[in-house]
Every structure is written in structure tokens, then in C-alpha cells.
Amino acid sequence: MEEPSMTGDGKKTLIVAGAALELLIEFSNNTVTGVTLGFPESAEIVNKHAVEAGKILLKDLQIEHNQSPLTKSLEPFARNFERLALLDKLSINPGLNLYEAVAGIYESLQRLHNWELHKSREDPSLTGKSDLELALIALCTKSGRPSMNGRGRVGLSLDFWTEKRLQPYPTPEAAAHAAETNKTWSLLIGCAPLREMGANPVRITDKWISLDVASGPTIDWLEPEPTFVPAESQTQTGPLQPGSPMMPGPRLPEAVFQATFDPPLHISLDLWNRIIDFGCGLDSSHHKFVMYDSLVIPAPTSKANEQTDTRTVICTKKVQAAPVGQPAELTHKTHTNTLYVYDAVPGKTLTELTFSHPSQLVQLLPYLRQYAFLSILLENSFKDDSVTVSTTPASAANKGATSSVKSDTNQDDFRSFMRGSGQQNSKTQNDAVPKQEGKEESLKVDVTLTVLPVPRLQVVFPFRDKTANILVEIRENGHVHVEAQNVLDESNMNATQNGRQRRVEDIGGLLMYMEDIGKWAEFIRTRWA
């Protein structure tokens, strides 16, 4: 409904009213000047977030200084308003306010998040960590970071992973900017129509977890009573229609909690089935049979329909490098990264799931992080718009023997490496593929991916006068566990500037720090040689 201004000054107000929301959009000379969002019939746990949500909608509609009214995209506004409208559409029954249902989950998750931050500050092993570092620990290793109207999105989101999580920032301003711009994996929590028989409908409550949060070593989750809504009025006579209640009386809501993955997450079919075992609902009707590695690193269009158990992906990339013995001089080196997949497993893409209790989401987070970090490693190492990626059948002759490794990062070495600068390439006799006339030497980095029973990466590259062979597991919460390695021995374990002995754990920690197999291999071969 459009309401013209009575003052004749060209001002107008567009009023959008629903079952539980009211949106006022103010115009002046056909330009949006204000947005007011309200929830007249909702509790305070909903209305206290209305102002921030209105600011997001206003920003979505305003013309920025570098934008034109002719090309201004309304997609962000449409996406945010759609989330609000869906909850409103499902709240048409008296006594059913799904804004309150979602806000109740936020209250419980925020209580859990605050408790985890408090416990982290009391943890002696985390002494000296900044508030940002503690927040990232909670986000990436505990119950995630709940946010209402965060990062330009209206509604509730649960952030559970972010890129560059271990990289330090020189100033609080840089850290705040990174928190807003770094790629973050989230669950957008809302509601959807109840379609599956046996699924538990929504419950409107903020008592999903006790006030004390924990009971001993475990989280003290509560099981709220069901929410009932009045029966639909029987205004028609005649035989009952399909789905009509047999007799009037309170009934369960015809809505269920839903979490949407932002961005979608590729996982193995094995984890897909485990998520169903957790009691969550997944829609398999539109998913075709695709191998996991092909989801993360898609095949060229000409081979998109080929599904084989073996696969090879070759990617040429430029990687920052420091010449051996000259750690302060940085240059760029060409890497030929080759990914071998010998035992491909089926995969699925998580886009959304239904759930009945927030504890189900918290239980899933360690496994979601596992595959989020695996996708980061594979995409950073083998997927880039600026390079050519070729896919060929994997040769059994290239299948390397498995070795083992363990590791955690040496940040002093890494920071020194990243601070260096230089302009000249430097190659050593043993670290490169034989040079062809007119072509730059490239370092070969071979990676073998095994997804089950746990994701494993076997990485082989030139190191000293031999071949480095490192086997790592990507475990829950994105932790890198080194199963085998041959790069650390008595000759280089004590060769650190600060006198700290290098440990096998540093190998895995360094990979978590860098999030790129090529950079990780380059660091090890030039700084630990």
C-alpha cells in the first residue's frame, strides 16, 4: 500500500504489512530515505533486533555514491526480505509467531557462546590470547558464533568456519575488516513448511539450554514442551478433506526449523548419511550421483558427465618463494600441482537441512568444519580462474606409497618468511622439474586424496637431495594430524632462530596456518632444508 504525503513535498511511504511484521519504506523524489521495520505483536526478544534489521534493508535500497539508479541491484534486498516474508507467511495461525521461534534459538545459542568465551578466558593454555583470537577459537572449534542481523544479512546465522583463521592482523581495525570480508561458512536459521511425516515441528521457546549452560563436563541441553496452535475453524460442512483434523482442538504447527548453508558445502555421501542419523532432514530428490572430488574441483565442461573411480587434476600456479639459504629474499616460483584421486567416493552438496533442536546443529559443526577446511585446501591448491586445470584418468603407476607425519605451526619462521622481499628467482639443483628451453623451471607437488574413512592428503615434493613424503589427516574441526613425515630429523629440528625445537606437530599447524598446499610445501623446502 502506498501512502502519499499530505504536505505535497514529494514524500511517499510504502507500507508492507503481514501477519506479524510491518515494513515502512519512505521515499523522497523517488529515492529511498528511510526504512522502519516492526513486529507489532512480537515479544521483546524479536523487537530488540528490529532496528538493526531495518538498517540492513535501508542499506540494500539506498543508492551509493558509485551506483546508478538504473543499475542498482535489488538482489540483496530481495534476499533479505524473502527471509522475513517466509517467516511471516508461516505465522498466519493465531498463536504461531515464527519470529519468536527463531529469536528463541538465538537467545539459547548466544548464552552458550558467551559461556564458552568466559571459559576460554579462564583456560590457562589460552592466557595472552586477544578477544578476537578467543572469538575465533569459539567460532571454529566450539559451538560457533551466533549472529542476529550480522554481515548484511537479516535474521539469525550461526557462523562455524572462516578462512585465514590463524593469521594475525597488525591492528584491531585490520582484524575487524578481515572479520567482515574473509569468507565465512554459516548456517542461516529460519523455518520452512512441514512436509515430512514424522518430523518434529517448531517449538516457540528460548529455553533450549539451561541457565547454567553446562552440567559437569557436558552442555545442559533442555527438551522444551511442544508448541500447540488453535485448530483451524471449521467453516465448511460436508466430508473431511485430506489432511483435515479429525476433531477440533489444539494441534502442532505445520512448520519446521531449517538451516541454509551459506555457502553450500560439499561433503561425502558417508557424512550425508550420518547427518540423517543425527535426526536432521535432507532432501535427496534433486541430487545426482557425483564424485566428491568433482564437486570441489569440477571437471572441464567436455568431461563433466564422466564419472570414474580414478582422476588426475593438474594445475600450474605461481607461489611466493624464498631461495634456499636466503629467507629474506622473496620471489615467485612456478608450481605444477597434481592431484591424484584413486578411490573416488560419491559426494553431495549441502544446501539446507531441517532440524528440531539446536543441539543437532552444534553436534554437526566439527564434521562441517572438517569438509570446509578440506575444500579450502583443495580450492587454493588446485582451483584458480587464472590457471589452466586439466583432468585426465589417474595412472596406477603414479600411485605413491603411503607415509606418515605429525605437525603444528612455527609462526616465527612463517612470519619471517612472509616479511621478506625480493625480485630474483632462485632454483636449486634438486627442487625443480628439468628445465625445457624457453620455459621456467617448475616445482612438482604431487597430492593424493583419500576421503574415507577420514580425509587424507599424501603430499610429495622435492626436499634437499631427496623427496619429501608427508601424510596428513583432516580431522574434525579442521585439525590437521600428521600421520607420517620424513622432513624433520635431528639435522633440522633444532634449527630455529628463537631456540624452540621444531616438532612434528609444526608441519600440520603450518598447513592450517597457510591453507595452501603449494605455499606450505615451498615454506618447508626452503626454510627447513
From TrEMBL:
Residues annotated as domain Mediator complex subunit Med1: 7-383
Gene Ontology CC terms, in alphabetical order: mediator complex
Zinc-finger listed as a keyword: no
Localization of this protein: Nucleus
A GO MF label: transcription coregulator activity
One Pfam family it belongs to: Med1
GO biological process, one term: positive regulation of transcription by RNA polymerase II
Entry keywords, A to Z: Activator, Nucleus, Transcription, Transcription regulation
Region (Disordered): 392-439
Biased composition (Polar residues): 392-408, 421-431
PANTHER family: MEDIATOR OF RNA POLYMERASE II TRANSCRIPTION SUBUNIT 1 (PTHR35041:SF4)
Function: Component of the Mediator complex, a coactivator involved in the regulated transcription of nearly all RNA polymerase II-dependent genes. Mediator functions as a bridge to convey information from gene-specific regulatory proteins to the basal RNA polymerase II transcription machinery. Mediator is recruited to promoters by direct interactions with regulatory proteins and serves as a scaffold for the assembly of a functional preinitiation complex with RNA polymerase II and the general transcription factors.
Protein family according to the UniProt entry: Belongs to the Mediator complex subunit 1 family.
Name assigned to this protein: Mediator of RNA polymerase II transcription subunit 1
